[in-house]
Predict the 3D structure of the following.
Amino acid sequence: MFILFTILFQLIFSVNTFSNLYSDSFHEELLIKRLSSGHVYSYFQFTTLWNTTLDKSTFDHTHLWPRSLGEILGYHNVQELHVSLTQGLWRYQNWGYPVVEAPPGAELWVWFKPDTENVEKEWKLLAGALSGLLCASLNFIETSNSMTPELSFRPVGVADISNPVNSSFLRYATLPREIVCTENLTPLKKLLPCDSKKGLSTLLNAGYVHNTNYHSLGLHFRQTCSGKYCVNPVIELRQTVSLVYDLSIVEPINQDWSIRKLFGVGVGSGCPLASSSRIYVDISSNETGPVFHLTPNPDSVALSMRGGYQSTFAVYDISSAEKLFNINANYRKLSSVPLSYPPPLYVNRYIAGYGQERGRIVTKIHNKHRTPLKIIYLENIPWFMPIYYHTLKVTANNRNINPIQKRYHPGKERVRPYFLEVVLEIPARTSIEVHFEFDYIFLKWQEYPPDANHGFYVGSAVITCMLPVGRNYTGLPPEASLISDSWNASQQGYLVQLRTESLILTLPTPDFSMPYNVICLACTVVALAFGPLHNITTKRLQLVKLDEEPKGVFPFPKE
Amino acid sequence: MDRVIILECVLASLLRFWLSHSEYKQIIADRVEVSTPVNSWKRVLEGSVLYDEGIDPYKGDIFHETPFILVVSNWLMHNFSPTLICLIFIACDILTAVLLYKTAALFMNELFLKQEKEKGGYAPGTEDLHVTKDDIKTPPIYVLSAFLFNPYIICPCVAQSTTVFANFLLAATLYFMAARQRILCCLCLSAATVQSIYPISLIAPIYLYFYKPGQAIKTFLILVSYVLLFIAIFLFAFAQLDGGSWNYLNSVYGFVLTVPDLRPNVGLFWYFFTEMFEHFRPLFVCAFQINALFLYVVPLSFRLHEEPMLLATSLTALSAIFKSYPSVGDVGFYLSLLPMWKHLFHYMQQGFFVLCFLIGTSVFGPTVWHLWIYARSANANFYFGVTLAFATSQIFLITDILFAYIKRQFALAHGLERILDGKEAKLILD
């Protein structure tokens, strides 16, 4: 009887789990946009949504959700995770804003759940686990290069309203030197339900992906909700690949581009496990810029009015495509150069000064908008670049601007990076400069990386702003999970988190071949003092007859 | 005589004031030979601004001064203009010079009196070696001039490095030692010690000064307890200034003792510990610090117990050479004491050699630094070579003056002639 009851119970229980298990969906999307500089931006987004709550046992059974990643998230008490691996620099001034922002190299920021006991330990372990999952050097993330931004980063998903946001559960780190290559792309593709066998992921061929000017891989995990009143918990994973092709390399003769030219193969049918597989081509520029014609004709055309700017998208639904096909964009007129229209806010950063003694970091933030913009400037200075907080100045046309708020935690050698967060208001149509001084540091000889004269990388600064207009903006609204959800989604403000250039700092180096020589020479000088002082203090002066002078070890014959 | 002193002081002040307001000020302040992590004014400014913002400056890597300097500099910055602050540094330097002058005057006077007392025991024919009446007057003036117009002293003052205060405290210690003011002397020694640790070795010459026959242990205990008491009071007061926190201990003294910052300076530590094998680092840090702090204290005290002032000078010099973050200000300080031993110069053999080396390294240092850091056509070895030569020449100077002292003592006892049993003989250490 008891056994029967147990079996019955297990049956009920497992049906329950399985009904929960299959409440997930997978969507694949590709957005292709011709940027005003002539580059082609293609953005892949693979979204997995799962109507479940997030706890440790959630990932014991998974369906479409990548279990390897899920286990890591559950085990380390992660509430939200964002990791990006990027090669190249997103050029805001010419390219506008990407859908997801990422700095050069690797970036990882994680919100842990408020009940996490030892955030520091979980952070280190999580970075190590992700390092294995993505074949990236994220295991180099530790306390000495991570920080806890207080203002710049907020959870982007749903957070418990009873728990006010406490940034002590946030960790942020970048590895600007990380080189992104095939070994990172392959594990990312393996997390997809169809791997790279079917669907849009077949387009991600290493040979073509790494030919780009900019490519960025991302994993974004958060908790969100569904339903009209946001009552059903959903966990969301977005796997993104952003690529920017330089057409003058892909197609030097004319400006035409096609799926085959960009990715090497045509598109087949979508992933059978996907609820939707769509390709969107931004054809807004047909009205303002160079006109092009798409073959084959799109299945439908979507109009989006967002933040006062209209965009038009050609939509291809490939879920039912039967054979490989190509999407071709033919330009009517050759050699027409589109006008570059800079976005409302963009930024440049560089090191000023010469020599390897002291320098200055200058960040130029340009506001092209007609109203003042409030920004948060987060500086991420590694411990080997000691900065002088008292030299921090914000100037606009040689006029000082007083920051609204400043947060600073001095760094410590080999222990903690320098953390600086400044809240500023940039006057309308003005460029401001944020600058401060730093010293070049001298490290121990074993702390220099191989090829020490190449220099040390300094991670990007992050500039956070709520833009009042949607010009050049392609990001998703906070409640949306899919690209198509962002159409006609006008918001109060459009959050951008610009990543600046990462810097390279050539620290002065010692002579690496010298350790023995230096140790010997320095000790010799110490001995030069010790010897005579020892003689002076232990011996006494005496008169000795010349012929009784003590002989040396080798008595030389006298002439 | 007084007119000469006033004239020199005025001239030196004008020179410092002019340099402080010239374009050279920044160049001098930026030199690694002048500004080290423990004395640079830029770092004091940084600490002071952090203090204003309510951020603990000792949490960071930039600020390594005592809380006293922190609070005072913060107060100065709020209430005084930069010109006035610069004048404070100049005044402090002039005061140091005057204290050294007085110290030298007291010392020469004492030396002369002592010689008059012991003259009977001297060997005949050694009159040339005696301190003359004239020697009471001139060496103090030389000390004053050597301090006021020493480029190694002017530069730190213009750069507003806190070595100026450390030198002032050292000079006060020496003055009160010569003037036999026991409590004030201990107070100044404690202050100098909490400012830069290394002066603690001066407790040996101070003990020899205040020692009275028959009260050896008592004097020693009194002195040590005074010094320890004052140091404890200072440290406690500093903790109170820092809001009751003892964090500063690690950032101020731990930083000096463990040498984590390997920025080049005129000392021996930076390249040695840059190239050190990680496994041996603690061993060599200990060995080098013992060498700088107290290795020579006991043996030299035995040898120089009749001449505590010379002992004080040698210990100051040795710590200036071997300390972890030396600057030219430390070197200049003991160099300006040397005229007090004018009567030993007769026996010094390396003077010319040392002078050439000091001048040479002072010129070569900035040159190879420029080649290494700016032109990038040289490397660290060049600058290391110069600092080695600089240290070697100073070591030669110190050992030379100590040899001169024992040779003179020998000559005073045995006469100038080096003849043994009617035959020509040679003077050797055995």
